[in-house]
Amino acid sequence: MDNAKPKKVIAPRTEMPCQPAAVRARNFKEVALGYTPEMAIAEAKRCLQCKKPGCMKGCPVEIHIPEFIAAVTQGDFDAAYRIIKGTNPLPAVSGRVCPQENQCEGKCILLAKGQPIAIGRLERFVADQHIAGTACEEVSGSSTCTMAPLCDDGNKVACLGSGPATLSCAGYLAANGIKVDVFEALHEAGGVLIYGIPAFRLPKDVVKKEIDAMRQLGVSFKTNWVGGRTVQVSSLLEQGYKAVFIGVGAGLPLFLNVPGENLIGVFSANEYLTRVNLGRAHSFPAGSDTPVYPGKHVTVFGAGNVAMDAARTAMRMGAESVHIVYRRTRAEMPARREEIEHAEEEGIQFEMLAAPLHFNGDANSVLESVTLQRMELGEPDASGRRRPQPVEGAVYDLPTDLAIIALGTRSNPILLDATPELDKNKRGYIVADEETGETSIPNVFAGGDIVTGAATVILAMGAGRRAAKEICKRIKG
Amino acid sequence: MPTRIVHKESLIPGTTSKLVLDAPQIASTAKPGHFVMLRIDEQGERIPLTIADTDKEQGTITIVYLVMGKSTAALENLKQGDSILDVCGPLGRATHIEKQGTVICVGGGTGIAAMHHIAKGHHRIGNRVVGIIGARSKNLLLFEKELSSFADELLISTDDGSYGHKGFVTELLQQRLAADKSVFEVVAVGPVPMMAAVAKTTQPFGVKTTVSLNSIMVDGIGMCGACRVTVGGETKFACVDGPEFDGQLVDFAELRRRLGAYRSQETLSLEQYRCQCHG
Ligand SMILES: Cc1cc2nc3c(=O)[nH]c(=O)nc-3n(C[C@H](O)[C@H](O)[C@H](O)COP(=O)(O)OP(=O)(O)OC[C@H]3O[C@@H](n4cnc5c(N)ncnc54)[C@H](O)[C@@H]3O)c2cc1C
Ligand SMILES: Cc1cc2nc3c(=O)[nH]c(=O)nc-3n(C[C@H](O)[C@H](O)[C@H](O)COP(=O)(O)OP(=O)(O)OC[C@H]3O[C@@H](n4cnc5c(N)ncnc54)[C@H](O)[C@@H]3O)c2cc1C
Ligand code: SF4
Ligand code: FES
């Protein structure tokens, strides 16, 4: 690699092509189309190759960002892929779903000038190049970069759940020659990447290819196995698994606890999204037997990624209007910025500073409207955010025939109730060592949302990887 | 891993069948009160069905279904030796079974099969089991033979009087509770109106009443809230908090309404399936 720094003429950030809003709002194809090689190289050339790169500090798995970007400027996408893959097992996923503005891009030196390097888009580009197969084939003549190691059957590890935490743990172990069996409760592996995040943001092929690649490394995925029901943690250890990794996520949906919440037409975002993504309700009845409730005037409660996904999915299922109801303002919305912008472009309306009081139904208990309380921002609370408070007397109705609640999730009791030896914290999540992920049961590890509460894909992957490192050390000495 | 149908038996031609499935892992851990989620093929919907029996030695579980719509109609089209793509379980909380004396197990329609497993559990632990089963007519009565093989007593009612008492199971239940003070619990599994009527019947007697709720389910493992029911004024998830609840506390009217939420789509799905099947 040559050390000459590129000239500091900083071009504007390279935009990523997208499907036009009016078209994409009615289909499930991916919204953002990805960079071409020319765009990627142009964007990579903006990078200053900082000596003390802020971007890396912002990355929860410490991808060697300037290095991979340098490889992109050289057009060496295969080398770039290997650099990313060195610390991040699922770059095609994280490039698409990480909240980059709070992570790498939020710490990029160029942010001060308003336009950080589009690190996420570059990561996605590199990963997609690899998936397309061209990069590796040119170099090695084979379509996989990773060497298939010998699996030692005497040393096997069980993982419960198959979301990003497990995928990252299993991937690391398999690459180190350790046999992994993954036990997943649903009929398809991938966790939220499959049942939660819609295809227009993360095409299901991307996840499937990553999982297939793991299968090639010797990881076996056993679906329809419920930890705590079909199989117990203790029996896995008795069966000779050297370690168990628990990555079952935090999937139990929260409701608002307001009157009328069980009317016909009120759903959790998890149900709505699971029916469409896992159940493929978008092709009901010809291609799928799973229906989803139809809504003309949809309201979604919440302002995170889950709320954006539910709102945009409802639009694609044929809604005439979709409102997102949030008790604070747009500035406080926790969703990825790109998703908020895309939602707006697609015609989602933001009903800010409003909180639901009750749902109203007709004589047959079918939802007709929601009564909202107008809010205003008051004094900052403990978290430093200004606390929303009701504006006295400002109460109004919003007609709606489909309400989707996206207020967050809690830990699922199935595995935890069946495994009382597992220490939990006050919030009901598993207590795990920060460094190793080990729980109160020796050789049983945990990571991802079941430890932190609902968080992000990349944090789950980081936790899976830390546990895998420790497991590897113990097995291999 | 697809699950093989080792035995299929039609109980009521065209509407109700019994399947014995090769599912050793589920059989080894299943208890009375548990259910499975099942998906027939790639296109299929996940549907819940109660485990009506298990054979731990053979590694099999038994399910009994009533043909209602697309999924159960497709199940009815499978033959012995065919496979079901996904079977997941055992799910739900097992029935609380403790040796306490006399228990009355009430079953209606297809619910008799589900009730059978619970009654068997009570029998095995040493409780005196009084079974009360009912159907519209004699030819629609399920599991009479299986139940009479262990139940200490079996009372039967049919709506049309073609067999046993003419009338409803609740009338037999009412008489029994009035005459027998040793009953510590009544368990009821069947159509929602039947379970509601059982709860109403037992209320004046103050006897513990357990009902098994059949709300709409999607995942069956607590991740969606489709199955939510109101019990004692609180929202519960039938798949993880139930499916059995205290019959005196259940909001049956709400349950019945929620069961109808997808009626128009269900009709569409079944019509389309019937068209395909019949050319
Ligand atoms: C709709 C939606 C959109 C999101 N968007 C983003 C985003 O854009 N960016 C981002 O960073 N994060 C996003 N998140 C959050 C992110 O997806 C999660 O933080 C992450 O998936 C957590 O990973 P995990 O491996 O801990 O668990 P999960 O992905 O939840 O996977 C857990 C798996 O365990 C299975 N399971 C549960 N119980 C059992 C059991 N008893 N036995 C066996 N298996 C079990 C579940 O079926 C599931 O497959 C989103 C979440 C949702 C719901
Ligand atoms: C815990 C539990 C145990 C059950 N055990 C049995 C059993 O042992 N035998 C049996 O015959 N039936 C049982 N049921 C009911 C059975 O699941 C439904 O009859 C079945 O899903 C109907 O599917 P379908 O496609 O054939 O009919 P559809 O046309 O889809 O629906 C017909 C009716 O079935 C109900 N239903 C539809 N979808 C679901 C769903 N996903 N989950 C639950 N109910 C639904 C609705 O009330 C609907 O109106 C049980 C339900 C629950 C919740
Ligand atoms: S902080 Fe920004 S400019 Fe500096 S190395 Fe990282 S991506 Fe490049
Ligand atoms: S069926 Fe989804 S939570 Fe019960």
Overall description:
The complex is a heterodimer of chains A (477) and B (279). Chain A has helices at 21-24, 37-44, 54-58, 65-73, 77-85, 91-97, 104-107, 119-132, 134-140, 164-175, 192-195, 204-216, 233-238, 269-277, 305-316, 337-345, 413-418, 449-452, 457-476, and strands spanning 152-160, 178-183, 220-222, 243-246, 252-253, 266-268, 297-301, 321-326, 349-352, 354-361, 367-380, 386-399, 402-405, 409-410, 444-446. Chain A is α/β, with parallel strands linked by helices and 477 residues long. Chain A folds into 3 domains: 21-131, Alpha-helical ferredoxin (Fumarate Reductase Iron-sulfur Protein, Chain B, domain 2); 146-251 and 411-476, FAD/NAD(P)-binding domain (3-Layer(bba) Sandwich), CATH 3.50.50; 253-405, FAD/NAD(P)-binding domain (3-Layer(bba) Sandwich). In chain A, strands 3-2-1-4-15 form a 5-stranded parallel β-sheet. In chain A, helix 4 (65-73) runs antiparallel to helix 5 and helix 14 packs across helix 15. Chain A is globular, with a radius of gyration of 23 Å. In chain A, 53% of the residues are buried. The model of chain A is unreliable at 134-145 (pLDDT under 50). With 279 residues, chain B is an alpha/beta fold. Chain B folds into 2 domains: 3-91, Translation factors (Elongation Factor Tu (Ef-tu), domain 3, Beta Barrel), CATH 2.40.30; 102-212, 3-Layer(aba) Sandwich (Rossmann fold), CATH 3.40.50.80. Chain B has helices spanning 24-29, 70-76, 111-125, 144-148, 169-179, 192-202, 238-241, 252-259, 263-277, and strands spanning 3-12, 16-22, 35-39, 47-50, 53-55, 60-66, 83-84, 86-91, 102-108, 128-135, 153-158, 165-166, 183-189, 208-212, 228-231, 234-237, 244-246. The mean pLDDT of chain B is 93. The interface between A and B is large, with 43 and 43 residues. The structure holds flavin-adenine dinucleotide (FAD) (2 copies), iron/sulfur cluster (SF4) and FE2/S2 (inorganic) cluster.
